[in-house]
């Protein structure tokens, strides 16, 4: 060929590079224009709509692992405070915020979705990514619902009086009310979280019931902020049961803000009858969920006895006899989600279904080694004294008459305890506010869908040598497939009753059964929300003040400053929940503040 007709390879390469450079400049300029256009769209977009869209992406693409299953401990992507306040290390780089409002490039959330690390199996599409980026650039605001109108404390009193009036006189003394209007009034609370608050109340009351039927609290207002229950529906009508709740309640007030509110309050007292009126017209549902689901109220309302033997007798379970007859079934675990030590799980048929007992250990050696000592516990006439284990405590999960679960923690002697010792068991999610396993609350949070899966190591890995003991191991520790079947049967029965308890509050239809599994456990979610520090806005909502500025203007005056509420008036200032609820005298800080503001007179029970 003629070299003068065809260009040389080097000249072609030079021309390509020139063209590439032009294209690169065009692409860069185009991307810059797109970024500027996107920024312009952000500035012009409805912030609330942008927040809704971003939260929708987080809910659909991220929340299952980071909010339901907690692949990163305590990380809930649908909790703005967690996202904004949390700091994580990104590789070898300095610590970065999960979300830094206004700065996506310094936000770990943007970093892991922009380079397709998260979600790992199905990364976000470009449109979803840009939605998250725009949301962070715009300040990472949370969804608000301006259509919600303020519900006053007086409105609540009117609704309760009207509802109580329509109930037969002889039935009124059993009626009690819960309210969420202070949550509803807080624009920082999303509609989705409102559903979870309602579901948590339904689950809590039914998870402490001694009755055979699931009965939901009844909303008595269109906004679903006020709920009625009948104490008899949960077995709480006996004297001393509900009184224990009132004794612990830190928000009781007799209205003082207006003559009309006081008149309605007195009308409610008249409807109840003075002998039956305890002074508190409604209990805050979030307080009830966060406090009644832990001892001592959990034990009182659920009727948990003071010793394991009493519970077993009530449930119709004879552990020793079932051991002798081989009618109980066991599994040995090297470790579990709450313990690094060996754990033995044993299940029995009971009056209301199934009862599960865990035997927990404070060491893995000696008689804490289940491979060598699987045939405990020690009891009279146990023929396998050379193979009995020695345990330090345990957890009991048993069916209530309505099919939901209740829980009991015991020490090595079977005595009821409130909390599991941290050297034996612990809660990595800190649901109770600490690593302590707290009976009721911690248990229901972990077992949100019923019994958890586990794998036995004893049947095939036992170290016992005598033929008789090895045969006993084979009889008590069934093959894994039988364990799996028992677990699945128990779990499905629980989920069926859980569906009846909370599906309506979560607004799930019959075709949305799988959606139930995508929600975080409502009681633990509400407990964590309740435990957060109070901002000016939150404190104003709890005091029934529509405009937070009115509270801010009075924080440094009179009794309020003496109470220590000054931080509420500072930019970003908060106060501790424990402080707000606490009482140095007969009244809580909340009650003292309400009295100082002439909102109400404290009620002590």
Described by strand count, sense and barrel closure, the largest sheet is: 6 strands, antiparallel
- Helical amount: 40-55%
Poorly predicted ranges = 1-43
Strand content: 5-15%
Structural class: alpha+beta
Structural commentary:
The strands form five sheets. A six-stranded antiparallel sheet has the order 8-9-10-11-12-13, covered by helices on one side. α2 packs across α6 (126-137). It has 605 residues and is of the alpha+beta class. β9 (343-350) and β10 form a beta hairpin.
Strands, helices and their partners?
Layout: H1 9-44, H2 47-61, H3 64-68, H4 80-85, E1 87-89, E2 95-97, H5 108-114, H6 126-137, H7 153-165, E3 175-179, H8 181-184, H9 191-206, E4 218-219, E5 226-230, H10 241-248, E6 253-255, H11 259-272, E7 283-284, H12 285-292, H13 297-302, H14 308-315, H15 319-325, E8 329-333, E9 343-350, E10 353-360, E11 393-399, E12 405-411, E13 416-417, E14 419-420, E15 437-438, H16 441-446, H17 458-461, H18 467-476, H19 480-502, H20 515-518, H21 522-531, H22 536-543, H23 548-552, H24 558-563, H25 577-581, H26 589-596, E16 600-602
Helix pairs in contact: 2-6, 7-11, 9-12, 9-21, 12-21
Describe what is shown at a glance.
With 605 residues, the protein is α+β, with helices and mostly antiparallel strands. It contains 26 helices and 16 strands. The model is unreliable at 1-43 (pLDDT under 50).
């Amino acid at each position: 060929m003629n070299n003068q007709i065809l260009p040389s390879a080097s000249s072609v390469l030079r021309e390509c590079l020139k063209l590439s450079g032009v294209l690169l400049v065009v692409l860069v300029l185009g991307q810059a224009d797109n970024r500027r256009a996107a920024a312009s769209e952000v500035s012009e977009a409805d912030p609330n709509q942008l927040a809704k869209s971003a939260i929708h992406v987080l809910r659909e693409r991220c929340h299952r692992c980071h909010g339901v299953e907690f692949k990163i401990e305590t990380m809930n992507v649908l909790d703005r405070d967690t996202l904004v306040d949390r700091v994580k290390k990104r590789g070898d780089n300095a610590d970065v915020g999960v979300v830094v409002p206004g700065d996506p490039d310094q936000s770990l959330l943007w970093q892991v979705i922009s380079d397709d690390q998260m979600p790992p199996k199905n990364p976000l599409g470009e449109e979803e990514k840009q939605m998250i980026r725009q949301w962070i650039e715009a300040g990472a605001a949370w969804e608000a619902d301006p259509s919600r109108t303020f519900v006053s404390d007086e409105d609540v009193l009117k609704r309760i009086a009207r509802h109580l009036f329509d109930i037969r006189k002889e039935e009124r003394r059993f009626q009690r009310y819960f309210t969420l209007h202070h949550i509803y009034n807080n624009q920082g609370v999303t509609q989705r979280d409102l559903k979870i608050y309602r579901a948590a109340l339904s689950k809590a009351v039914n998870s402490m019931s001694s009755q055979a039927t699931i009965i939901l609290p009844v909303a008595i207002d269109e906004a679903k902020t006020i709920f009625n229950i009948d104490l008899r529906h949960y077995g709480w009508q006996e004297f001393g049961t509900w009184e224990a709740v009132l004794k612990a309640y830190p928000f009781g007030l007799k209205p003082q803000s207006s003559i009309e509110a006081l008149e309605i309050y007195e009308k409610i007292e008249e409807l109840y009858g003075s002998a039956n009126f305890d002074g508190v017209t409604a209990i805050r549902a979030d307080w009830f969920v966060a406090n009644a689901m832990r001892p001592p109220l959990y034990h009182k309302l659920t009727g948990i006895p003071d010793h394991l033997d009493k519970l077993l007798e009530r449930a119709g379970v004879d552990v020793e006899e079932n051991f002798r007859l081989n009618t109980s079934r066991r599994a040995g675990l090297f470790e579990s989600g709450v313990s690094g030590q060996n754990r033995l799980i044993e299940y029995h048929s009971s009056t209301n279904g199934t009862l599960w007992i865990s035997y927990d250990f404070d060491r893995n050696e000696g008689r804490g080694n289940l491979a060598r000592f699987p045939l405990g516990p020690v009891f009279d006439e146990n023929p396998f004294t050379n193979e009995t284990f020695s345990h330090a405590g345990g957890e009991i999960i048993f069916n209530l008459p309505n099919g939901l679960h209740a829980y009991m923690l015991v020490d090595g002697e079977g005595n009821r305890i409130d909390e599991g010792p941290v050297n034996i068991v612990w809660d990595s999610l800190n649901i109770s506010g600490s690593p302590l396993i707290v009976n009721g609350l911690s248990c229901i949070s972990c077992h949100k869908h019923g019994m958890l899966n586990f794998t036995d190591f004893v049947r095939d890995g036992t170290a016992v040598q005598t033929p008789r003991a090895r045969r006993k191991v084979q009889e008590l520790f069934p093959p894994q497939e039988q364990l799996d079947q028992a677990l699945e049967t128990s779990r499905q029965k629980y989920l069926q009753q859980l569906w009846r308890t909370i599906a309506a509050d979560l607004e799930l239809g019959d075709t949305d059964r799988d959606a139930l599994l995508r929600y975080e456990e409502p009681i633990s979610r509400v407990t964590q929300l309740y435990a957060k520090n109070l901002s000016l806005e939150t404190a104003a909502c709890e005091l029934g003040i529509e405009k937070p500025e009115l509270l801010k203007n009075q924080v440094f005056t009179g009794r309020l400053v003496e109470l220590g509420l000054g931080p509420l008036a500072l930019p970003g200032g908060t106060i501790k929940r424990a402080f707000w609820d606490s009482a140095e005298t007969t009244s809580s800080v909340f009650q003292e503040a309400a009295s100082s503001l002439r909102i109400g007179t404290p009620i002590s029970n």
